[in-house]
Amino acid sequence: MPANPSPYGPLTLWYRQPAARWVEALPIGDGRLGAMVFGGVAHERLQLNRDTLWSGLPRPVGDDHAHNHLARLRHLVLQERDYPAADTVAQQLQGPYTESYLPLGDLHLQFGHGADVADYARVLEMDTAVAGVQYDLAGVRFIRECFISAADGVLALRLTADRPGAITFAASLDSLLWSRTEGLARDVLVLRGRAPAHVDPSYLASDHPITYGEDETDGGMLFEARLQILAEGGRLTGDGRRLRVEKADAVTVLLAAATSFGGFDRPPHTDRGALAQVCAEQVRVAAAKPYAALRADHVAEHRRLFGRVTLDLGGGAATAQPTDVRLAAVRAGGEDPQLVAQYFQFGRYLLISSSRPGSQPANLQGIWNEELRAPWSSNWTTNINAQMNYWSAEPTALPECHLPLADLIEGLRVNGRQAARTYYGCRGWTTHHNTDLWCLAGPVGAGGGSPVWANWPMGGAWLCRHLWDHWLFTGDREFLAARAYPAMREAAEFLLDYLVEDGAGHLVTCPSTSPENGFLTADGRRAAVSAGTTMDMAIAWDLFTACGEATATLGIDTEFAHACEAARARLLPARVGRHGQLQEWWEDFEEPEPGHRHLSHLYGMYPGSQITLRQTPELAAAVRTSLERRLAHGSGHTGWSRAWVINLWARLEEGDVAREHVLAMLRLSTFDNLFDNHPPFQIDGNFGGSAGVAEMLLQSHVAVGARAGGGVSAPPASAEIHLLPALPSAWPTGSVRGLRARGGFAVDIAWGGGRLTQATLTSTLGGPCRVRTQRSDTVVEFATAPGGNYVIGPGGVQA
Fold first, then answer.
1. Does the pLDDT of residue 711 top 50, yes or no?
2. Strands across the sheet with 734-741, in order?
3. Pairwise pLDDT comparison (185 vs 162), residue with the higher score
4. Are 535 and 472 in contact (CB under 8 A)?
5. Pair type for strands 789-793 and 500-501
6. Which of 230, 372, 521, 557 has an alpha carbon 20 to 30 Å from 171's alpha carbon atom?
7. Confidence of residue 4 (pLDDT cuts 50, 70, 90)
8. CB neighbours (10 Å) of residue 113?
């Protein structure tokens, strides 16, 4: 950390006061272990999380006879058009709610001095993933810094002062869960506990929302956290409940945590000895390293990922002001392009910190949660939120961070096969509105949930888009053959069985909802379930298209590809409604909430690419009308909804409008620590916001039918790369380095006077490249070789 608290660099968040609330604390993490650092003076709190600490255990998908209600439901929709009655029947196809992500506990440091300090600074250095505090007290400069090391799997907290013998504090651990703390020695403290057997969602009224098993063998995850203090000088003692350091010169605090999770398909184990061994070994290995080496290894591992992308939008002088002051100025109508760049990088920082190979994927709150009944159970909501968490992974050069989502999909395939059979009598696999650590795949609601969110079986098909995108960006053929295509094929099998005739020659999904929006029937009644919603059709089109491209690339499954192609040709097409909008349902229903937060029917433009400005101008115009109508009635009022708006305006190549919504995101939906304010905190807006900024600067699309063909080294199909497609006039000069494009390209771009000055494309895979610049209709096409660099400027392309 810099010796002077101001100014800091462009990648540092900093504040002149401790966090007063959880949503002001600073997040650190390594994908598995997370902490929120408050930066207190007399009392420091680090709130702790572990990615696998959830309530519950595996359970059956649901009623084996649930599919018996399907025929009646479809008759009500397709023949009688009695949509409210269909809603009632749809509730018979609902199973249990998901379980909840839980807080591990808190590490407290109680210092032997007051809080009246001078020259205070609280910082988060995003480029090193180190959070810290500095202040002066009675002539002594105190410095604390904290990080969670992906290299060593531990939290490390370092305390120093510029006067020997100045450090005195007491350390303790506690938890909201059933737990006990025990001192194993004068330098070791252990927190042992167990999770509830079940936690009801926060929105569900319940007399007993949190229930524990009778004992540790009767349901509920076991967990352990182990803390060790390494003091340099002074005296270290323990009383069984806390450890006390007196008059030390410097101190290193190490913490490791583990749970008894053994897989989504098996109950948690009950071997506390195994948990103790894991934690003790992690702390032992970390303690054997000098602190400088521990820190250096952590920083190197973090920078390996974070340092791939840089962004400069100008306005660097603003970093002389604390982050909350700058954000307040933007809320008051000010401009701060460098804060936008920080916000973009903060999204990347959060993804690295909450989603790494081998960890669980980032949930609704990443890995950071302090509540026993977190908002929406802090689960994975798969009708937009879980997907939005990963929109930025590939474009901002973090493909490794995408892999935990692929791992979750593997578990969902297993349970999703049973869900497909149980609820619909179909082959393949499906998953619904949300899921949890146990890969719940059935529709939640327990027979009383609103079908507007519960009865939506398209989560699996949408998740498959992420597998396909990972291939398009990386060209990892082994991933395509072994992981992506098998999941895509089974999801497509489900759709082939699930689709039904609409009576006019089209194939539609039924039951079908447009998450989480309802419509009004002709007689003014509100309903949710119909058939062939525009989002369902767009997702099915995407999946059938990807399956066809994958089979051609891999040289397999020709007959199945023909089946997908035939079904795609018969899908109910997107249509323009009475207001000039893209019609959301199969009938042009009126909406009870024209400003609804979900933009589900616009999927075909983003994140899909079935609708584009140049290939389908009439539908693109309808998307614009839909977006304008939604916003005129108040849509975008949640953080993640605003993030989707940014990406859609970027696809419409309206840079100035997209920028307005970036600013609206900062002004209306951002806490002082830059967390997304849904409200309450929900991390998808951070990730979606980062994706939106990237989409304004670089886009890439693969044309349908542009198949790469077979062959061991065949790259993905040719992509059209669009440079600066939605550059705002308020960002006239800037540069970005390291963004990624489909087809296997790394892209650096510089611009001045609002125009491209130079772009460098590095081909990682070889193959053809097609480039469009800003809002031009001219496309330049050229061949590339693996490892080749290609410079694009006013004079054209130079190899």
1. no
2. 310-312, 734-741, 745-752, 755-763, 789-793, 796-798
3. 162
4. no
5. unpaired
6. 372
7. very low
8. 15
Single residue among 635, 656, 671 that ends a domain in this structure: 635
- Residue 707 domain-assigned? no
Give the integer Cα–Cα distance in Å for 82 and 75. Answer: 9
Strands 767-773 and 719-723: parallel
Strand partners for 107:
46, 173
User: Looking at residues 476-498, what average pLDDT do you find?
Assistant: 98
Chain-centre distance for alpha carbon 274: 31
Cα(624)–Cα(296) distance, rounded to whole angstroms? 49
How far apart CA 59 and CA 761 sit, in angstroms, is 49
Which CATH number covers residue 770? 2.60.40.1180
Q: For position 2, what pLDDT does the model report?
A: 46
Q: How many CA atoms lie within 13 A of 81 on its CB side?
A: 10
Helices within 13-90 (DSSP H only): 70-75, 83-90
Distance in angstroms (rounded) separating the CA atoms of residues 726 and 495: 35
> Where do we find the tokens 């009675």?
138
CB atoms within 10 A of CB 332: 8
Q: Max alpha carbon distance in the chain (Å)?
A: 84
Which distant-in-sequence residues (6+ apart) come within 8 Å of 214 by Cβ?
none
Contact 339, 332 (CB under 8 A): no
CA-based torsion, 643, 644, 646, 651: positive or negative? positive
Is residue 243 within a helix (H) or strand (E), and if so which, with residue range?
strand 242-248
Residue 2 burial class via C-beta count within 10 angstroms: exposed 0-12, middle 13-18, buried 19 and up: middle
Q: How far apart are CA 65 and CA 378, in angstroms?
A: 30
Cα(469)–Cα(399) distance, rounded to whole angstroms?
10
Which of 306, 324, 348 is the C-terminal boundary of a domain?
306
Tokens, residue 720: 């059209």
Going by C-alpha positions, the residue among 157, 166, 121 that lies closest to residue 139 is 166
Burial class from Cβ neighbours inside 10 Å (0-12, 13-18, 19+) for residue 594 reads: middle
In a shared domain, residues 405 and 287: no
Q: Is the pLDDT of residue 715 over 70?
A: no
Residue whose structure tokens are 């205070």 = 120
Residue 483 main-chain phi, psi, to 5 deg: -120, -50
State the Cα torsion 36-39-42-44 to the nearest 10°.
20
Strand 33-37 vs strand 43-50: parallel, antiparallel, or unpaired?
antiparallel
Tens digit of each residue's pLDDT (9 = 90 or more) over 192-241: 999 999 999 999 988 899 999 888 777 899 999 999 999 999 999 999 89
β-pair type (789-793, 755-763): antiparallel
- Residue 679 in tokens: 């409200």
Tally of CB atoms within 10 A around 410: 13
- In angstroms, rounded to a whole number, what is the distance separating the alpha carbons of residues 394 and 469? 8
Determine how many CB atoms are found less than 10 A away from the CB of residue 265.
Answer: 11
Summarised one tens digit per residue, pLDDT across range 89-139 is 999 999 999 999 999 999 999 998 887 899 999 999 999 999 999 999 999
Residue 55 to residue 259: CA distance in whole angstroms: 12
Average pLDDT, the chain: 94
Find the CATH number of the domain harbouring 240.
2.70.98.50
Residue 698 to residues 48, 189, 621, Cα–Cα distance (Å): 37, 50, 21
CATH no. for residue 535? Answer: 1.50.10.10
